[in-house]
């Protein structure tokens, strides 16, 4: 039986995707793999939660194309608050020129389509972790 303190010591990942089905699928998979997850389907709501979070999430995993704010804009806003934030963008359309134009790049880019398991390795690399269920 796990105690609450053990659970709270696990890395926290914020997932932001305007498609709830995709976000919930990713969230469920990462929870099974031993991560704490908070899912948001609106980038502005995620940014407000990020501002209030203490401690800050270990990783921000965000879709690129979303209404109100792109994933790159969200990464930029969150990094302004927490420069050491590790980030992963998921996209089927983002190009190098999009990143150059925005002046920001995620630490890792995972191209769509992908399996939820394709996200685990980049998270492990960014956190330098071997995740334990």
Strand share of the residues? 15-25%
Can you list the strand order of the major beta sheet?
A: 2-1-3-4-5
Tally of domains: 1
How many strands, which pairing sense, and closed or not: the largest β-sheet?
5 strands, parallel
In CATH terms, what is the fold-level topology?
Rossmann fold
What is the helical fraction, as a range of percent? 40-55%
Class from helix and strand fractions: alpha/beta
Poorly predicted runs are: 1-6
What is the CATH class designation? Alpha Beta
What is the distance, rounded to the nearest whole angstrom, between the alpha carbons of the first and last residues?
Answer: 12 Å
State the oligomer: single chain
Order of helices and strands: HEHEHEHEHEH
Fourth-tier CATH superfamily name = Response regulator
Rg on CA atoms, Å: 14 Å
User: So how many helices?
Assistant: 6
CATH architecture level-2 label: 3-Layer(aba) Sandwich
Protein architecture, described:
By secondary structure, the protein is an alpha/beta fold. The protein has one domain (10-127): Response regulator (Rossmann fold), CATH 3.40.50.2300. Helix content is 41%, strand content 19%. The protein is built from six helices and five strands. Strands 2-1-3-4-5 form a five-stranded parallel beta sheet, with helices on both faces. It is globular, with a radius of gyration of 14 Å. The protein starts with a helix and ends in a 6-residue tail after the last helix. Mean pLDDT is 89; it is low at 1-6.
């Amino acid at each position: 039986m796990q105690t609450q303190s053990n659970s709270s010591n696990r890395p926290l990942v914020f997932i932001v995707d305007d498609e709830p089905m995709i976000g919930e699928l990713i969230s469920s998979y990462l929870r099974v793999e031993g991560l704490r997850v908070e899912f948001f389907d609106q980038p502005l709501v995620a940014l407000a939660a990020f501002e209030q979070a203490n401690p800050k999430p270990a990783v921000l995993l965000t879709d690129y194309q979303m209404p109100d704010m792109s994933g790159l804009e969200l990464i930029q806003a969150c990094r302004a608050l927490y420069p050491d934030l590790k980030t992963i963008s998921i996209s089927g359309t983002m190009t190098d020129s999009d990143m150059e134009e925005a002046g920001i790049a995620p630490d890792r880019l995972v191209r769509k389509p992908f399996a939820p398991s394709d996200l685990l390795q980049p998270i492990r690399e960014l956190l330098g972790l071997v995740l334990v269920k």
